Amino acid sequence: APIFIEPLFNTYTPAPPGPVRDAVVELAHQTGTPSDKIYIYDGSRQSDRYTANVSGLFGSARVAMSDTMFQQGADLSEVRAVVGHEMGHYVHMHALWMVGIMAVLAMVAFWAADRLFPVAQRLLGANRVNGISDPAGLPVLGVVIGFLFVLATPLTNTMVRVIESDADQFSLEHANEPDGLARALIKTAEYRAPSPSWLEEFIFYDHPSVSNRIRRAMAWKAEHPPEG
Question: If you ran DSSP here, which 8-state letter would residue 135 be given?
Fold first, then answer.
């Protein structure tokens, strides 16, 4: 992805020498993340999302920060907090875990679709369809798959929320920038409702709510007062 796919959509330029690059390189050394490829990309072409990422395998891994971070006035503590979160995804191999879990869920979905197809066929009155292998049954299969996706939404969203919470914890432990993380999260409230109900968050949110994430950051700050 970093070599062939992502450059199709954005321009990646090496981060210039200075405090930002130095802070990211230092954090990369501390967390065991590759530190030889630090980039800034024009993410503002697509959206105003305040984000960064660490992607790639087998020597292609790189840290990439969207220019939206700096357009919105990110200071060093915010940069360290956000990049630390993304390094958490990389170090804990969250992408590979998600691929594995989604593969298992896909197999479960295939099994469930096979079992539910005759039920849906009867309920929809598709009497002329000769089983799941009949191309004429594609609309029925579409209904079954859609139903399964709706049922799976809270499960998959919960999986991603757990991963995002783990990345937040990684950032707090290694970057130790709870205030920076909180300031960065407040900026994401422009495109993500910050305080949903617990039920809304459980069903629809693939990230923990901004209010919950800030609360955890402040709890970390209270439990880890500055030394000296």
Answer: G
- Which tokens hold the place of 172? 């707090």
Tokens standing for 15?
């981060």
- What's the N-to-C CA distance of the chain in angstroms? 44
Phi, psi of 134 (to 5 degrees): -80, 120
Task: Return the SS3 of 220.
Answer: helix
- In this prediction, residue 57 carries a pLDDT of 84
Please give the Cα distance from 45 to 42 (Å, whole number): 6
CB atoms within 10 A of CB 84: 28
**pTM exceeds cut of 0.85:** yes
Q: What is the mean pLDDT of the chain?
A: 93
Residues contacting 59, CB < 8 A, separation 6+: 34
Q: Beta-carbon neighbour count of residue 2 at 10 Å?
A: 18
Which pLDDT value is given to residue 226?
78
75: left (phi over 0), alpha (psi -120 to 50) or beta: beta
Q: Three-state SS for 34?
A: coil
Give Cα 99 distance to the centre of its chain.
13
